[in-house]
Recover the amino acids of this structure.
């Protein structure tokens, strides 16, 4: 597959030079080449696919209500009852007493996601995944190989159904914002193209809240200004909106005009990698908290190694029963992706947090760098630079640890990630979050 | 105060004292210099509260003893541009008049008791060393001290007296320079076991004060400061209160690989290859085969470069990569022409022996996979 660079699209500067009033449809020249593919009720659909007896039933994936669980995904049947993701499970069950609640099986969803992403990448290298079940694609330059963007969109939708048995909604448009809007407007099992000349007629009647960046609060403020629909917003002068909302104003005004110059950027760079969990019951016991931390650190470290990254800054997050949230951070001399190293810092950071029952703890590693980058070795390691005075040669320990970890990772990849765990974690269940997912965070 | 002084001598003294005087200070009095005329000498005093200098000019004609506190920079500049043989310094009311022949200036003075008290050298001598050998020691080591980052103690040079020699160590955590020189015996015994972390700036100041490389200079180390005395100057600088990394353990004692090479040639080849390496994560790979060193450098944006040279290397093959800037910093000080590099693995420290009693440890750069 050739890597065709995206041709420059209508840039913001061009528009400004020509003057905003004179150009009601700045996208008029550009054909739709951006695809937004979004799986319908992804987790629930995977469950139904693998257990057809569930089809037609209100199915939800999420954590149990007696553990403060929340819904991670709801089938369209369940949505009819008003159930939606992020809703507490207890509330969902109240709305829909016959709800089929399933635990989250993250590995199966990840597997399905990989297959779907592979289909995208067989058409274009410019794939920007937004989550497991959603991605932007830029197919400009692929026309000779696969046909127009619309044809590619149809092919992808069919291929996903054929290869994975899952249903996707596809939006095709000249920009990211419009493509996402298109897939959104046509859900479920949708396919929608927004051509450049339709931009105004599609956008105008929509409520402003459909604009990316307009949340409930901005929507209220806009309404107070007499702006309800996108058309109302588009009619306002750019200066007026900018005066009221600052940089956000410029942004939403552009979107209301259909201007969105964001490119599809494959491999969005990971800025941090972490894991956190809200407990079923608050935990005050430090020993128990440390066990969770160790578990998270091992998991996060494995994830970093998997992505070929290591990080220098470690952040501990703790939320008390009253929702007060504290974070403590430490930056290391050396970037690391070793569980024990991350844990020793996380443990130290936990000591700096006042005692009390916690409802959530999390660990995050940031300041990431590629492991393939050359590394200037240091004379004195982190352990040696503590206030107790340096004790030399942590480098050796680190290198030994790296070698061992490399071997263990091979086992973990071949058998299962939990085939080797620290002895103190033997017999513990894999940590799961309130929505039943494994609580991994990527920012 | 009224003094008549040799112009050149006065200028030399002012230049030395100006080294410590800050050009801008939150305490304006520190931007001044204190002149004190006593019996047959003129003393020049300056301080930035971290370091202080007392410079003595002998053989002056003192007509009226006393102090004068004058702006330091202007005094130096004015005296430098005078052309007469001698200079006359005298105070009238709150002015200090500097004159030479037909040229003169009136400088504003500050109350002498506002000027900080400058430490005097005690009668107790701790150790002494030849001036030139001390400056060479500092030049061989101080460049390796940390500048911006790193723990504060590493911004200084560690000075230790042991077995009749003075050992200086500096490190920024990625490289470390260590050099020793003998000190005068009798005094060394009394000072044995003393260790002090001297700010790198203070060390440079010491070097600037030493004007005669053959002169024996004296050191005095106390709890919180170190002093140096030459025949005309006394200088004190505050020590860094902190813990120096335990450096001894990172100096490799045994090694698998030993290479000997012409230092100047190695420096030239290294610079050649370093040209293509990028600005961040600069690395030059040293690949050794019997009798031969192959240098290789690359960067994504610029390309790659190779250089080869004959070296003395016997056993098998070995590979290690360094930041070329660090290696070049050391090679600059290799006066004997021959450098020896020893190391164990590509991830363990490289030890460069640059002269007798002079080693330079550089941590390598490792590249995964």
């Amino acid at each position: 597959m050739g890597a065709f660079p995206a041709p420059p699209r209508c840039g913001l500067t061009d528009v400004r030079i020509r003057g905003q009033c004179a150009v009601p449809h700045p996208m008029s020249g550009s054909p739709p080449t951006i695809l937004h593919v979004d799986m319908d009720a992804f987790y629930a659909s995977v469950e139904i696919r693998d257990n057809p007896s569930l089809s037609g039933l209100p199915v939800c994936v999420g954590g149990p209500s007696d553990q403060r669980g929340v819904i991670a995904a709801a089938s369209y049947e369940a949505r009819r009852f008003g159930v939606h993701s992020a809703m507490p499970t207890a509330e969902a069950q109240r709305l829909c007493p016959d709800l089929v609640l399933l635990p989250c099986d993250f590995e199966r969803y990840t597997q399905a996601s990989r297959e779907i992403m592979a289909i995208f990448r067989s058409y274009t290298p410019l794939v920007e995944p937004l989550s497991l079940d959603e991605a932007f694609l830029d197919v400009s330059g692929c026309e000779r190989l696969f046909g127009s963007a619309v044809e590619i969109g149809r092919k992808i939708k069919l291929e996903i159904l054929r290869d994975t048995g899952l249903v996707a909604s596809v939006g095709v448009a000249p920009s990211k914002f419009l493509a996402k809007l298109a897939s959104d407007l046509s859900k479920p099992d949708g396919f929608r193209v927004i051509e450049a000349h339709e931009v105004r007629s599609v956008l105008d009647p929509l409520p402003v809240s459909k604009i990316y960046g307009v949340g409930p609060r901005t929507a209220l403020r806009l309404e107070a200004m007499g702006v309800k629909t996108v058309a109302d917003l588009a009619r306002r002068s750019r200066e007026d909106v900018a005066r009221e909302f600052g940089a956000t104003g410029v942004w939403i005004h552009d979107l209301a005009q259909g201007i969105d110059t964001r490119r599809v950027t494959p491999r969005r760079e990971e800025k941090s990698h972490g894991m956190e969990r809200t407990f079923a019951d608050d935990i005050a016991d430090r020993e128990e908290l440390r066990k969770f931390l160790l578990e998270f650190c091992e998991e996060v470290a494995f994830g970093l190694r998997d992505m070929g990254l290591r990080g220098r800054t470690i952040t501990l997050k703790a939320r008390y029963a009253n929702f007060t949230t504290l974070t403590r951070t430490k930056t290391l001399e050396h970037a690391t992706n070793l569980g024990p190293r991350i844990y020793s810092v996380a443990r130290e950071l936990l000591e700096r947090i006042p005692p009390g029952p916690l409802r959530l703890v999390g660990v995050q590693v940031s300041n990431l760098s590629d492991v393939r980058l050359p590394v200037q070795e240091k004379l004195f390691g982190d352990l040696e630079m503590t206030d107790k005075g340096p004790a030399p040669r942590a480098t050796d320990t680190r290198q030994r640890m790296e070698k061992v970890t490399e071997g263990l990772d091979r086992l973990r990849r071949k058998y299962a990630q939990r085939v080797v765990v620290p002895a103190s974690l033997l017999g513990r269940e894999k940590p799961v979050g309130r929505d039943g997912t494994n609580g991994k965070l990527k920012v | 105060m009224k003094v008549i002084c040799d112009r050149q001598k006065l200028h030399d003294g002012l230049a030395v004292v100006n080294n410590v005087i800050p050009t801008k200070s939150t305490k304006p009095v520190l931007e001044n210099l204190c002149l004190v005329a006593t019996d047959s000498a003129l003393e020049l005093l300056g301080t930035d509260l971290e370091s202080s200098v007392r410079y003595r000019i002998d053989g002056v004609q003192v007509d009226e003893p006393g102090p004068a506190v004058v702006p330091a920079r202007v005094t130096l500049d004015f005296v430098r541009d005078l052309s007469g043989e001698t200079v006359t310094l005298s105070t009238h009311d709150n002015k200090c008049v500097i004159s030479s022949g037909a040229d003169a200036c009136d400088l504003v003075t500050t109350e002498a008791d506002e000027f900080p008290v400058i430490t005097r050298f005690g009668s107790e001598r701790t150790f002494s060393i030849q001036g030139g050998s001390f400056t060479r020691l500092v030049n061989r080591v101080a460049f390796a001290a940390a500048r911006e980052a790193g723990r504060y103690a590493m911004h200084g040079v560690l000075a230790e007296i042991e077995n009749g020699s003075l050992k200086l160590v500096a490190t920024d955590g990625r490289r470390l320079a260590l050099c020793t020189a003998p000190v005068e015996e009798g005094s060394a015994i009394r000072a044995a076991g003393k260790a002090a972390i001297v700010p790198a700036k203070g060390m440079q100041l010491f070097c600037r004060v030493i004007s005669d490389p053959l002169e024996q200079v004296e050191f005095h180390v106390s709890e919180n400061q170190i002093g140096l005395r030459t025949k005309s100057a006394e200088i004190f600088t505050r020590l860094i209160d902190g813990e120096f990394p335990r450096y001894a353990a990172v100096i490799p004692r045994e090694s698998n690989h030993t290479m000997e090479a012409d230092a100047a040639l190695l420096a030239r080849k290294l610079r050649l290859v370093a040209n293509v390496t990028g600005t961040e994560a600069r690395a030059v790979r040293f690949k050794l085969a019997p009798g031969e060193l192959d240098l290789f450098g690359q960067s994504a944006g610029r390309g790659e470069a190779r250089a080869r040279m004959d070296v003395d290397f016997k056993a098998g093959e070995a590979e290690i990569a360094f930041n070329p800037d660090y290696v070049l910093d050391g090679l600059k000080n290799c006066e004997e022409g021959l450098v020896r590099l020893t190391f164990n693995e590509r991830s363990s420290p490289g030890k460069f022996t640059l002269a007798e009693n002079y080693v330079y440890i550089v941590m390598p750069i490792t590249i995964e996979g």
